[in-house]
Design brief:
With about 80 residues, the chain is mostly helical. The chain contains three helices and no strands. The protein is elongated, with a radius of gyration of 14 Å.
């Protein structure tokens, strides 16, 4: 490492947001396709009788920090 790479942070997603951006943020952090993360979340929730999955999502919605504000003139602004 040369020290120029920015440190990755687990935040909710601004680009891949459907409800609160939790699955999109996890996908961005682990460099996965957001659709794959969402499908995996739904399957795990169904197998676990839904309540633990919903509870985990709500907890992550409040624990994960929001994405950083978009800088004017920055790419994606």
């Amino acid at each position: 490492m040369n020290g120029t790479e920015p440190k990755r942070r687990l935040t909710r997603s601004r680009q891949h947001k459907m409800i609160a951006g939790v699955c999109g943020g996890l996908a961005e952090y682990f460099e996965l396709d957001p659709t794959v993360v969402r499908v995996a979340y739904v399957l795990v929730s169904i197998v676990s009788v839904a309540f633990p999955g919903i509870l985990a999502y709500v907890i992550l919605m409040f624990v994960m920090p929001p994405p950083p504000p978009v800088q004017p003139g920055a790419p994606g602004a």
